[in-house]
Amino acid sequence: REKELEAREEEAKLKEEELKAEQQRQAKRREEMTLKKNLEKQMIAKKEQERQQQEEERYREQMMVDAAMRKIQEEDMMEVEHRKEVERLIEEKRREQEERRKAEEREWEEWKELDKIRAAIIEEEKKRLLEAHRPYLGPFTPHRHLQGRGNPSDASP
């Protein structure tokens, strides 16, 4: 009976040791699982942080591209406005030159007309004076000025 009791105690001791070993294995497995879950969480958090950083970097880059595009558009608009202003100034200068040319042409035509009138007045005055002084000029009267006014040989001294 004592042997039986010892055997049972031995068996109980073995079972208890097996139970402790099993509990330790389970505790170790739980600890490994917890470590694994924590590691996975850290990896997920790190990936999420990297994703957010990449997204922020893409956002920054996009904002820089947008800013550069806006600047280019503004510069293009300024260039277009500058070209329009240059074209307007060129056109204005052309109009002014054309107006000046026309004014000079009108002035020239007026001057020519006045010159014709002056020449006609002078010619008429010459003819009148020659006609008035014909008797005193005699044979020295220029014939070309008295055309149509009689014969130059009719002139008396």
Automatic annotation (TrEMBL):
Any single biological process term in GO: meiotic cell cycle
InterPro entries linked: MNS1, TPH_dom
Keyword check for Coiled coil: yes
Pfam families listed in its UniProt record: TPH
Region span, Disordered: 1-35, 136-157
Entry keyword annotation includes Transcription regulation: no
Main location group: cytoplasm
A single GO cellular-component term on record: nucleus
Residue stretches making up the Trichohyalin-plectin-homology domain: 78-137
UniProt entry keywords in alphabetical sequence: Cell projection, Cilium, Coiled coil, Cytoplasm, Cytoskeleton, Flagellum, Meiosis, Nucleus
Protein location: Cytoplasm, Cytoskeleton, Flagellum axoneme; Nucleus
Role noted for this protein: Microtubule inner protein (MIP) part of the dynein-decorated doublet microtubules (DMTs) in cilia axoneme, which is required for motile cilia beating. May play a role in the control of meiotic division and germ cell differentiation through regulation of pairing and recombination during meiosis. Required for sperm flagella assembly. May play a role in the assembly and function of the outer dynein arm-docking complex (ODA-DC). ODA-DC mediates outer dynein arms (ODA) binding onto the axonemal doublet microtubules.
PANTHER family linked to this entry: MEIOSIS-SPECIFIC NUCLEAR STRUCTURAL PROTEIN 1
Family, as annotated: Belongs to the MNS1 family.
The protein's name: Meiosis-specific nuclear structural protein 1
The organism of origin for this protein: Darwinula stevensoni
